[in-house]
Design brief:
Helix content is about 60%, strand content about 0%. With about 130 residues, it is mainly α. The protein starts with 9 loop residues before the first helix and ends with a helix.
Length: about 130
């Protein structure tokens, strides 16, 4: 699933999934398991892929992505990985994602708090 560059081949992976007619459930588990692995640097790609799938079963992984900063992203004060995860949470219907966004309203990081509030407002859940 990983390209030679070390980045997840997101569009290609989605095509392979469609071609194989794999259910969303079959595709979610490998991405959820792959996210915390320390042998790659495709965290942002994985979060983007999970966001496209819009499944409540991705919420725990996306919540992890809002709190965890991989070593190679330690320099990123803007927390791009966390912001992608918050956007993905905002796109997922249901109470699991809403609760995760509610919890992020109390985060110590102002940027994360603001983005969580923005997603809740966009969803009409403020």
């Amino acid at each position: 699933m990983a390209a030679a560059t070390g980045r997840l081949a997101d569009p290609a992976a989605l095509i392979v999934k469609a071609a194989a007619r794999a259910s969303v459930e079959e595709f979610l588990e490998p991405l959820n398991e792959l996210f915390p692995a320390d042998w790659h640097r495709a965290y942002e790609d994985i979060v983007s892929s999970l966001g496209k799938l819009r499944s409540p079963k991705t919420v725990p992984t996306l919540v992890l992505a809002t709190h965890w900063v991989p070593e190679y992203l330690d320099w990123d004060e803007n927390r791009a990985l966390a912001l992608k995860a918050i956007l993905a949470l905002g796109a997922i219907p249901g109470p699991e994602a809403r609760e995760a966004l509610d919890d992020l309203r109390d985060d110590e990081n102002e940027t994360l708090r603001e983005n969580a509030v923005n997603q809740l407002a966009r969803r009409g859940e403020l």
